[in-house]
Design the sequence.
């Protein structure tokens, strides 16, 4: 089975701190994604990557950056956390060009910014 | 931008009853997918229906797709308490993007199945 692992299930950070959310997948997937999920707003795409060192902005990239130095790892970075970034963050991966687009999700990282 | 919108937002039924959730979307799609999310957990893929398919079954799940109305429905038959979860539809963002896996999700239907 595909496994997508997010390093932290729960984090509490202070405003202005730099935050790293790590995601690792073990099935050699080419595509990786970061979504955030908020009540009433559903899932919104922050960034995605379809290859090592490649990244594309999603719908809400402001305040975030990403890094994909290795195929299996996709990191989300909050350069200076703010309270409006308190949310559930979901990482997902999928096969590349030959796939139907089914996403495999991690368990989520719930971030609270005080 | 939201592509899929689910209806109803919340649904409460008794065990053994059927649950129907609907999803509407705005633009042309290559496929539509349904996902399930248990409280506080990640999403799990349930079923995918392609734009040239009208109906698909998987166990107690039945999905229909009407591309003329830009809508889909998910039917869970003989529901169980363990089916309690949120259900999301997701569509590829635009033509040709399905191979990147970039999906746009609706806001979800929260289903409660009472024992």
Sequence:
């Amino acid at each position: 089975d595909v496994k997508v692992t997010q390093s932290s299930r729960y984090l509490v950070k202070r405003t202005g701190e730099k935050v790293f959310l790590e995601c690792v997948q073990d099935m050699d997937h080419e595509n990786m994604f970061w979504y955030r999920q908020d009540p009433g707003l559903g899932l919104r795409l922050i960034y995605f990557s379809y290859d090592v060192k490649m990244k594309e902005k999603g719908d809400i990239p402001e305040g975030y950056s990403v890094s994909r130095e290795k195929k299996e790892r996709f990191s989300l970075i909050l350069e200076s956390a703010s309270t409006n970034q308190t949310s559930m963050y979901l990482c997902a991966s999928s096969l590349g060009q030959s796939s139907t687009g089914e996403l495999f999700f991690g368990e989520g990282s719930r971030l609270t910014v005080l | 931008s939201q592509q899929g919108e689910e209806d109803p937002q919340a649904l409460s039924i008794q065990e053994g009853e059927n649950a129907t959730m609907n999803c509407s979307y705005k633009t042309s799609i290559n496929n539509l997918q349904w996902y399930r999310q248990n409280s506080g957990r990640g999403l799990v893929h349930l079923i995918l229906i392609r734009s040239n398919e009208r109906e698909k079954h998987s166990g107690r799940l039945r999905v229909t797709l009407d591309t003329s109305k830009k809508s889909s429905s998910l039917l869970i038959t003989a529901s169980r308490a363990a089916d309690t979860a949120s259900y999301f539809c997701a569509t590829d963002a635009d033509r040709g993007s399905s191979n990147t896996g970039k999906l746009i999700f609706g806001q979800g239907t929260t289903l409660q199945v009472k024992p």
User: Anything to note?
Assistant: The two ends of chain A are 37 Å apart (CA to CA). Chain A touches chain B at residues 4, 31, 33, 35, 40-43, 45, 48, 50, 58-59, 90, 92, 94-108, 110 (CB under 8 Å). Residues 38 and 101 of chain A are 23 Å apart (CA to CA). Chain A is about 0% helix and 50% strand.
